[in-house]
Structure formats: C-alpha cells, structure tokens
Design brief:
Length: about 150
C-alpha cells in the first residue's frame, strides 16, 4: 500500500495550518515514518551513552532533592539537554572556553556533553535526526510550485 503524497507550497509554514500538521502526522504514521524516526533517534542516543547518562542524572536530581516532582524533573531535563543553552535557558555563543558566569570548565550551569557525563543531546544525534526526518517527509510530502 502506498501512502498518498501531501502537496505543499514552498511558501507554506508548518505552524500555519493545523490541518496540514494533522495530514503530515497521519501520513507519517501510515507510512511507518514515525517508527523509523523514533528508532533512529533511540539508537543514536543509546550508542552515545546518553540514555545511561540520563538515568544517572535523573537519579542524582531526585536523590539530592533538587527535583521533587515529575514536572520539575522534566523541566530540568529539557533545559539541560538542549545544546547551546545554559542551565538558565539563555542561548550561549557556542565558543569553547569559559563563559561569563560559568563553572570554570567551559560550562554554564549544568549543561554538559555526553562525553563529560552530561545530558546535552549529542550533535551527531541531532544531525542523524534531521536527516531521517527529512527523508521521511520527502516520502510523504511533495513540494509544489503554486505560481
């Protein structure tokens, strides 16, 4: 069974149309694209050691009392896992070295790379994720020139 293509104008913005969002999500589900995206991301995160680091990080936050509820834990994980953000949610400049107000080893707040035992999403995982999402979208969407 082939999945019907969704025609999209190059000027269409994804967030501009809830119906388009729904159509794309439905097409990705029907084509098993969502499953392939999830599998790719999971494999990449596990192979880098991120999943193990996340488990340890969660336990440390809960045991230390820094986070007492699921919502607090999730907010902290989301904040500390995003590359290019400090633990206070501000965008960093991405330059190596100690940032103003940093901890002396080039980090602001608690955000650290996987190699350093942290939970920042690895750049490799981001690139692999973007690549598979683009591939899966190309399977279900067709960009058409409406002019």
């Amino acid at each position: 069974m082939t999945t019907p293509s969704i025609s999209i104008s190059p000027s269409t913005h994804y967030d501009s149309s809830p119906a388009l969002q729904s159509d794309i999500a439905s097409a990705l589900l029907a084509s098993k694209g969502i499953h392939r995206i999830q599998a790719t991301l999971l494999h990449s995160l596990q192979s880098t050691g991120w999943a193990d680091n996340l488990r340890t990080y969660c336990l440390d936050l809960l045991r230390s009392g820094e986070c007492a509820t699921y919502d607090e834990l999730m907010a902290r994980i989301i904040k500390d896992s995003r590359p290019g953000l400090s633990s206070d949610g501000k965008v960093t400049n991405g330059v190596n070295g100690t940032a103003k107000g940093g901890d002396g080893d080039g980090h602001v707040g608690g955000a650290r790379s996987v190699e350093e035992g942290g939970i920042q999403i690895p750049e490799r995982t981001i690139k692999e994720g973007l690549k598979v999402v683009k591939k899966e979208l190309e399977e279900v969407c067709e960009v058409v020139d409406s002019s």
